[in-house]
């Protein structure tokens, strides 16, 4: 570890006193570290990005917002293009740590993932991901690629049939709804998300 | 937003004295954690948890969510560890992830608050701010945290990274991509605001 550094020397005395106050470390609950390690270990055993995506039931802790004026600079006007699988479908794999009923498991085994394409217009964005209940709202799972003209971002991912909620993560900091998709309120999060129906309802 | 000002942690929950430096961490722990060693990852969490919690509480519009944000940051970090390149300083990377988590959470919280303040019934239920006049130390701590909460987020984050977490401007430039001249200006603005607000309350 590096040695402690203190940059307060140039600060005003009142500000230095405030900095001292802010430097107090909080008390850490006894089980806090164990809870974090457990959550991280659980997350790591879930299927990685290149595997068929888990169903909506495995909803994560994602948080949504409506894009609106927050990304006006990005001039966002996304739209969707449905894709279909060109290669033989693979069976859906379930997460080892997920608790699901036998009936649900049976239904899931028979579900054939369908490749869905997401397209989003954000010419000024540096990177964009699609996040949703199908990838536990994890922005690292489905990064989108920029089109040659730099205007559009797209990604195609296999998703099991059903009703899914999603959004776009722009530059790791903005969650934006798809302006071309219907919106619905997420029952877990109380926030709105875009809705994609995959396969036949 | 001011109608739903965040509740700040009581001073009684802030125990350890300054300076709040990270406990010694075996440099090999990061290499072992990269390979999936959960014991090594536990060492990392133990070494950084308190600092991350301090940063998240100061950054978040809803400080009560700080534990959740710290957990989310560590989960993201653990997932991304196999891709971690050791030429980047680990501590910078961790706080970069945590900063992203906090900014995203703040955006959601601010939008929710904007919706909620239209609810008159809810406004009436918001308790008046209370302060113990006979506890000068606690009052100062509360004043600092309330004043900091009013500093714009992009200034507050840089102020915290530099003065509280001890990152140099050079390091913060690499973390954020913002030029050092702009970073110094943000810290100056945050400092000026705090001085103006707190000088009225300094005996």
Oligomer: heterodimer
| Tally of separate domains of chain B | 2
Would you tell me the structural class of the helices and strands of chain B?
mainly alpha
What is the CATH topology of the largest domain in chain B?
Answer: Rna Polymerase Sigma Factor, Chain: A
What do we call the CATH topology of chain A? Immunoglobulin-like
**CATH class term of chain A:** Mainly Beta
Rg of chain A from C-alpha positions? 21 Å
Number of domains of chain A: 1
Instruction: Estimate the strand proportion of chain B.
Output: under 5%
Give me the secondary-structure category of chain A. Answer: alpha+beta
Instruction: Give the CA-CA distance, first to last residue of chain B.
Output: 29 Å
What does this structure look like?
The complex is a heterodimer of chains A (201) and B (203). By secondary structure, chain A is α+β, with helices and mostly antiparallel strands. Chain A has a single domain (43-198), classed as Immunoglobulin-like. Chain A has 3 helices and 10 strands, in the order H-E-H-E-H-E-E-E-E-E-E-E-E. In chain A, the strands form 2 sheets. In chain A, strands 4, 7, 8, 9 and 10 form a 5-stranded antiparallel sheet that branches. The model of chain A is unreliable at 46-109 (pLDDT under 50). By secondary structure, chain B is mainly alpha-helical. Chain B has 9 helices and 1 strand, in the order E-H-H-H-H-H-H-H-H-H. In chain B, helix 1 (27-34) packs across helix 2 and helix 7 (153-164) packs across helix 9. The longest helix of chain B has 27 residues, at 90-116. The model of chain B is unreliable at 1-23 and 116-134 (pLDDT under 50). Classes of the chains: A alpha+beta (201), B mainly alpha (203). Chains A and B meet through helix 1, strand 1 and helix 2 of A and strand 1, helix 2, helix 3, helix 4 and helix 6 of B.
């Amino acid at each position: 570890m590096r040695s402690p550094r203190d940059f307060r020397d140039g600060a005003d005395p009142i500000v230095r006193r405030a900095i001292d106050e802010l430097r107090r470390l909080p008390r850490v609950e006894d089980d806090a570290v164990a809870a974090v390690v457990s959550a991280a270990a659980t997350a790591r055993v879930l299927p990685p990005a290149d595997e068929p995506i888990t169903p909506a039931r495995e909803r994560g802790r994602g948080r949504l917002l409506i894009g609106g004026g927050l990304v006006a600079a990005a001039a966002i006007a996304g739209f969707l293009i449905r894709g279909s699988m060109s290669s033989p479908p693979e069976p859906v794999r379930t997460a080892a740590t997920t608790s699901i009923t036998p009936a649900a498991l049976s239904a899931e085994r028979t579900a054939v993932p369908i490749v869905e394409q997401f397209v989003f217009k954000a010419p000024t964005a540096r990177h964009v991901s699609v996040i949703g209940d199908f990838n536990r709202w994890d922005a690292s799972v489905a990064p989108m690629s920029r089109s040659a003209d730099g205007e559009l971002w797209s990604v195609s991912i296999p998703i099991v049939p059903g009703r899914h909620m999603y959004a776009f993560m722009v530059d790791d900091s903005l969650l934006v709804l798809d302006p071309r998709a219907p919106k619905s309120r997420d029952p877990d999060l109380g926030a709105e998300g875009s809705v994609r129906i995959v396969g036949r309802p | 937003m001011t109608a739903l000002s965040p509740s700040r942690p009581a001073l009684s929950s802030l125990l350890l004295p300054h300076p709040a430096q990270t406990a010694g961490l075996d440099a090999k722990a990061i290499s072992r954690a990269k390979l999936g060693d959960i014991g090594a990852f536990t060492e990392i969490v133990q070494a950084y948890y308190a600092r991350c919690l301090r940063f998240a509480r100061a950054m978040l519009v809803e400080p009560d969510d700080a534990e959740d944000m710290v957990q989310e940051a560590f989960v993201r970090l653990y997932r991304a560890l196999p891709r971690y390149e050791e030429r980047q300083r680990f501590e910078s990377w961790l706080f970069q992830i945590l900063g992203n988590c906090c900014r995203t959470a703040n955006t959601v919280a601010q939008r929710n608050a904007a919706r909620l303040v239209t609810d008159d019934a809810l406004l009436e239920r918001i308790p008046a701010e209370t302060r113990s006049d006979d506890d000068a130390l606690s009052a100062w701590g509360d004043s600092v945290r309330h004043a900091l909460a009013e500093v714009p987020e992009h200034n507050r984050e840089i102020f915290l990274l530099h003065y509280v977490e001890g990152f140099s401007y050079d390091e913060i430039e690499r973390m954020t991509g913002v030029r050092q001249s702009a970073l110094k200006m943000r810290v100056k603005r945050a400092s000026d605001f705090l001085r103006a607000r707190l000088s009225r309350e300094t005996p």
